[in-house]
Design brief:
42% of the residues lie in helices and 19% in strands. It is built from 13 helices and 16 strands. The chain has helices at 4-9, 11-20, 27-66, 69-104, 143-149, 155-161, 172-190, 204-209, 235-239, 297-314, 361-366, 390-400, 411-417, and strands spanning 125-130, 153-154, 168-169, 194-196, 201-202, 222-223, 228-230, 246-247, 254-263, 282-292, 319-323, 335-343, 348-357, 369-371, 377-379, 381-389. The longest helix is centred in the first third of the chain and has 40 residues, at 27-66. The structure holds one RNA strand of 94 nucleotides.
RNA sequence: GGUGAGGUGGAUGAGUGGCUGAAAUCAACGGUUUGCUAAACCGUCGUACGACCUUAAAGUUGUACCGAGGGUUCGAAUCCCUCCCUCACCGCCA
């Protein structure tokens, strides 16, 4: 949620930024500001009246103590009258406050000035492309054939147990997942991130805090009886660790990492896009999250991008980094860089990580604050990135390193997997 | 799931209708003292949203907030209702 203060200071600037995100309803800004003015007006009126009620009530107490019953009774009448005239003001005030809040959450985060213009994924800017293209052996096949051939992921049985889009990892496939998770977590903790293993379901307040609610409830699995949501990413529970907390400035940056399965209900598209491990309802991911001083968030964003780049390099996969354009960015993000790895056998790029700076958009909802050196309360900035999403990494590892009857594994993984080949 | 006890400021914890936005202690911060450390002493020490004043900061001031939401009352941390959560014991269970 944007800070009202930002809208007040520069409504025109806000509209211009929103345009970069291709957010059409810029009139919302004016609506919100006028609601804010109304709110202030009603609050002033309410406060003044309530002050009178409070002081008169105090007088009643004093009169009663002195035994001046009659005068006390008169005052009571006075207060009763005041209160009944106050009633409608109070109602209007709270109605406006709610309306203001409802409108404010409809505004997406403002894109930073580093965000390239553009509307669709085609407009994203390739910032960097690196890594060696593999030379595939003759008869190389996509991962969905490989996993079948080596019997390491079984979608049919996953569908039988649960439904389509739920993979059953088996044997070396399951072990490779475990090795990757372990490797990623170790890589992150070595860079100073604290490891967490969070709950995989969250309550409404947490889903709201990171921006899944309102609006995106359809993308999450919902436990109706208990009103819990299966997490779509560990970003949700991890960022919410500090919800409604005032942290110490010297404790910043707070660096956290977590593994979790991620659950996505998203209505799938069809065909090649969703084949095999490309898109599933449940997948594993290791995430990094940081809460930082607002002055540092862009510096930290770059640091996180570098961190994830190193991780990808260690996997020896060809990759590229994209700066997402205004139209392709998520609602809550101010700057997003995507990482894609090249899947040789599919001849396409697959997104494996997304590194975003949310500035104060999430923390304003969650009220994650600190007191700066001058004693002023400030919101921290929050950032997160995947490091990494497993299924597509696995797909690329399998495809790009396939040999005639085996798959070679990069050295970094071999250590964790206990072998330099899959079989 | 059952029974019982609870949820108060950074922490501990007092507070059963007006003098309580909240004692006390600890922590933290500023200062005095000090060869250094410790101790002692003095002071500061919640948040949000307004108003006034100001270029701004500061300052003055109002309102709200003692788990959440309702209610009773002239007046609620305190009484009542609903919900949530925590702890203990029992039950069930990996």
């Amino acid at each position: 949620m944007l800070q009202l203060q930002v809208l007040r200071q520069n409504p025109q600037g806000v509209k211009e930024r929103l345009a970069i995100k291709h957010f059409a309803e810029t009139g919302l800004v004016d609506t919100i500001l006028s609601l804010d003015d109304q709110r202030k007006k009603f609050q002033l009126e309410f406060d003044n009246n309530q002050a009178k009620v409070n002081s008169t009530s105090k007088e009643i107490g004093q009169l009663m103590a002195k035994g001046q019953k009659e005068e006390a009774e008169n005052k009571k009448q006075e207060v009763a009258a005041l209160k009944s005239s106050l009633q409608p003001i109070a109602e209007q005030l709270s109605a406006i406050e709610k309306q203001l809040q409802d409108e404010l959450v409809k505004l997406p985060n403002l894109p930073s000035n580093k965000v390239p213009a553009g509307k669709t994924p085609a407009d994203n800017v390739v910032v960097k492309e690196a890594g060696k293209q593999p030379e595939l052996p003759a008869g190389a096949v996509p991962h969905w054939d490989l996993i079948k051939k080596y019997d390491i992921v079984d979608f049919e049985t996953g569908a039988k147990i649960t439904g389509s889009g739920f993979a059953l990892y088996k044997g070396k496939g399951a072990k490779l997942q475990r090795a990757l998770i372990q490797y990623f977590l170790d890589f992150n903790t070595a860079a100073g991130y604290t490891e967490y293993l969070p709950p995989f379901m969250v309550n409404e307040a947490s889903a709201y805090g990171t921006g899944q609610l309102p609006d995106k409830e359809g993308q999450m699995y919902h436990m109706q009886e208990d009103n819990f949501f299966m997490i779509p990413t560990s970003e949700v529970p991890v960022t919410n660790i500090y919800r409604d907390e005032i942290v110490k400035e010297i404790d910043l940056p707070i660096k956290m990492t977590a593994y979790s399965p991620c659950f996505r209900r998203e209505a799938g598209s069809f065909g090649k896009d969703v084949r095999g491990l490309n898109r599933v309802h449940q997948f594993d991911k290791v995430e990094v999250v940081q809460l930082v001083h607002p002055d540092k968030s862009y510096e930290v964003h770059q640091e996180m991008v570098d961190h994830i780049e190193k991780l990808l390099q260690s996997l020896e996969l060809p990759y590229r980094i994209l700066a997402l354009c205004g139209g392709d960015m998520s609602f809550t993000s101010a700057l997003t860089y995507d990482f894609e790895v090249y899947s040789a056998a599919q001849d396409r790029w697959l997104e494996v990580s997304s590194v975003s700076n949310f500035e104060a958009y999430q923390t304003n909802r969650m009220k994650i604050r600190f007191k700066d050196s001058t004693g002023k309360m400030q919101l921290t900035h929050s950032l997160n990135g995947s490091s990494l999403a497993l299924p597509r990494i696995m797909a690329c590892l399998l495809e790009n390193n396939q040999t005639k009857d085996n798959v070679n594994l990069p050295a970094a993984i071999a250590t964790y997997f206990g072998s330099s080949t899959l079989l």
